[in-house]
């Protein structure tokens, strides 16, 4: 539902309210206050209460931490678990095997496929196709919805076969896996990626190419941040890369995130070289473009993506590029594992518990994720810090809106078009505001 | 697994195991999966046992894949704790929290609405289990815990009954 008034001319004033906008995760309000052509306020208010995970895990054993922190998010549970395990292992001096790293990467790639497919088809596509949600889309474009569900199911099946569950996997522990996938599991995943995911990704590309003109042609100069590894497009490991300042070690992540609070939001904001920075698919793409696999590079070319991509709406297109990239990367790992066979390795355990601190980062679908733990000599957490991608993106959303509102007015957009475009902007970031509520209110204050 | 029946079945456990009885669907399905993996249960059809957590959209994905789907979930049905019923979506009044589907942890009513739009809701059965305690924490209420073997047996029976 939308109620809005716009008085035109050079001194525009706006008053629009849109309660219960769906297709973002969590509860936030867009507030635009424009008076006589002057933009007074343009920001995303996050009104979710803090969840206190960092305080909650104090006193828990290192064996429990990843299982608890994976509950921060039902969509990025694999990413939280992985980042948590890496931070714990670094703190306690646990070195995992190459096979463990390979299997973990496969899991991250599966989770990335799943989340990206959800965002492309269930969050973004309804806007591009002019329908309010995926339900009416199912009536008019059943083949597209079924394809998206097929891609989602396969991605979930990959996580299930490797991690024991589709979300919140229960086979991942510090030092490795409690149970290995069978060679049959690996062959099945490989066969399905080749026979199903690759053609479905190709069909997705054709669909997105057909809809490319629906993305607003809005651009804003900003800083893009993502992990960068030496030899591969970074998801599992790497240094922090910025399009403005180059590389920073993960141990120094606080010098990049620079969290600060704002009076209108319960979410912290972040800034680095500029007033804000962008993390997510575009953050990765703009820092790793030269490391894309061939099919993914071809998808990027066909979608007209070339660094530095400055249009935040194209984060959705970058997600499709990454979907293809992680399929290719998965096939490389699977071929290697199938050639050498799966060893029945037991999780590596620390020889002796010790005091220590470990800060680690992983790329989850919405951007770079940091977990930082300090342990005592009994292996219990005494201090923790988790910085999620949406926290890092909130200021970037605000900064986008500051330029997007005048951009829309200059183009003579109607009140409905402006409201939809603002919602699309927030959705383009694919924010995980709380994992508990499904509403975003948009209010233009006169 | 042999395939006497042509249409495969997905048994999907929904819920959050960190919210006590809310996780009963996941726990039932994981116990059945152990039976399958160990060879203690050898059904005569192709079966998938899925711990979907709070991802109801995954149930839609299975239904849209031309399968029978048995959803196992905690429910408020006005019955004594631990009682359970199998029913079809059309037999139950399920209300969505939100009138428009969100893919982030869509609830079961939203998911069923999408299944209906895709024409696959007819192949869905729901095993609803009356919950007692949905507070924070792990482990089931005693009333549910003692009924777990009956719940597993009822699902096995339903798997055999489906065409």
Describe the 3D structure:
- The complex is a heterodimer of chains A (446) and B (163).
- Chain A has 446 residues and is of the alpha+beta class.
- Chain A has a five-stranded mixed sheet, covered by helices on one side. A four-stranded mixed sheet of chain A has the order 9-8-7-10. A three-stranded antiparallel sheet of chain A has the order 11-12-13.
- Chain A has 13 helices and 14 strands.
- The longest helix of chain A is centred in the first third of the chain and has 32 residues, at 98-129.
- Chain A has two domains: 3-49 and 406-445, no CATH class; 53-393, Orthogonal Bundle (Cytochrome-c3 Hydrogenase, chain B).
- Chain A starts with a strand and ends with a strand.
- Chain A is globular.
- Chain A is 44% helix and 18% strand.
- Mean pLDDT of chain A is 90; it is low at 1-5, 17-22 and 434-442.
- Chain B is of the alpha/beta class and 163 residues long.
- Chain B has one domain: HybD-like (Rossmann fold, 3-Layer(aba) Sandwich), CATH 3.40.50.
- Helices cover 32% and strands 20% of the residues of chain B.
- Chain B contains five helices and five strands, in the order βαβαββαβαα.
- Chain B has helices spanning 24-38, 56-63, 108-118, 142-145, 148-161; strands spanning 9-14, 47-53, 68-75, 84-87, 124-130.
- A five-stranded mixed sheet of chain B has the order 2-1-3-5-4, sandwiched between helices.
- In chain B, helix 1 links the parallel strand 1 and strand 2 (47-53).
- Chain B is globular, with a radius of gyration of 15 Å.
- The two termini of chain B are 17 Å apart.
- Chain A binds chain B through residues 20, 22-25, 71, 74-75, 77, 118-119, 122-123, 132-136, 138-139, 142, 145-146, 149-150, 152-153, 156, 160, 164-168, 432, 435, 438-439, and chain B through 18, 50-55, 57-58, 60-62, 64-65, 97-105, 113-114, 117-119.
């Amino acid at each position: 539902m939308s109620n809005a008034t716009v008085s035109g001319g050079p001194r525009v004033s706006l008053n629009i309210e849109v309660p219960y906008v769906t297709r973002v995760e969590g509860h936030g309000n867009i507030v635009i206050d424009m008076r006589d052509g002057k933009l007074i306020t343009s920001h995303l208010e996050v009104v979710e209460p803090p969840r206190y995970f960092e305080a909650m895990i104090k006193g828990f054993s290192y064996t429990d931490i990843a299982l608890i922190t994976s509950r921060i998010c039902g969509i990025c549970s694999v990413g939280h678990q992985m980042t948590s395990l890496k931070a714990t292992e670094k703190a306690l001096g646990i070195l995992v095997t190459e096979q463990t790293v390979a299997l973990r990467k496969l899991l991250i790639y599966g989770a990335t496929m799943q989340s990206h497919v959800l965002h492309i088809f269930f969050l973004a596509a309804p806007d591009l196709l002019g329908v309010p949600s995926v339900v009416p889309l199912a009536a008019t474009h059943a083949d597209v919805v079924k394809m998206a569900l097929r891609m989602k199911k396969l991605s979930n099946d990959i996580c299930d076969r490797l991690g024991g569950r589709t979300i919140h996997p229960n086979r991942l522990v510090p030092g490795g896996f409690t149970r290995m996938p069978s060679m049959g599991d690996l062959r099945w995943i490989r066969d399905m990626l080749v026979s199903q995911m690759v053609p479905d990704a190709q069909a997705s590309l054709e669909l997105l190419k057909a809809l490319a003109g629906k993305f607003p042609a809005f651009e804003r100069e900003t800083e893009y941040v993502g992990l960068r590894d030496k030899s591969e497009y970074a998801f599992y490991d790497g240094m922090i890369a910025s399009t403005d300042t180059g590389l920073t070690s993960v141990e120094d992540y606080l010098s990049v995130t620079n969290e600060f609070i704002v009076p209108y939001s319960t979410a912290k904001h972040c800034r680095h070289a500029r007033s804000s920075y962008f993390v997510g698919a575009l953050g990765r793409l703009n820092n790793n473009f030269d490391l894309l696999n061939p099919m993914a590079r071809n998808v990027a070319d066909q979608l007209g993506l070339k660094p530095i991509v400055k249009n935040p709406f194209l984060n959705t297109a970058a997600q499709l590029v990454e979907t293809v990239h992680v399929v290719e990367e998965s096939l490389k790992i699977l071929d290697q594992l199938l050639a050498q066979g799966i060893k029945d390795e037991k999780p590596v355990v620390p020889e002796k518990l010790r005091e220590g601190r470990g800060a680690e980062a992983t790329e989850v679908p919405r951007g770079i994720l940091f977990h930082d733990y300090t342990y005592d000599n009994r292996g219990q957490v005494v201090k923790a810090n988790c910085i999620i991608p949406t926290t890092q993106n909130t200021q970037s959303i605000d900064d986008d809106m500051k330029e997007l509102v005048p951009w829309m007015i200059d183009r003579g957009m109607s009140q409905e078009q402006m409201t939809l475009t603002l919602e699309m902007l927030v959705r383009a970031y694919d924010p995980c505001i709380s994992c508990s509520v499904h509403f975003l209110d948009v209010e233009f204050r006169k | 697994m042999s395939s006497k029946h042509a249409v495969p079945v997905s048994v999907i456990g929904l819920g959050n195991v960190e919210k006590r009885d809310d996780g009963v669907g996941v726990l039932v399905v994981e116990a059945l999966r152990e039976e399958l993996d160990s060879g203690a249960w050898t059904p005569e059809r192709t079966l998938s046992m899925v711990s979907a957590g709070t991802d109801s959209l995954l149930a839609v994905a299975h239904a849209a894949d031309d399968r029978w789907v048995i959803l196992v979930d905690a429910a408020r049905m006005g019955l004594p704790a631990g009682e359970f019923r199998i029913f079809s979506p059309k037999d139950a009044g399920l209300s969505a929290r939100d009138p428009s589907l969100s893919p982030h942890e869509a609830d079961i009513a939203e998911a069923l609405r999408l299944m209906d739009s895709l024409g696959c809701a007819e192949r869905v059965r729901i095993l609803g289990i009356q919950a007692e305690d949905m507070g924070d924490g792990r482990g089931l209420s005693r009333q549910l815990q003692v009924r777990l073997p009956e719940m597993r047996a009822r699902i096995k029976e339903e798997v055999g009954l489906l065409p």
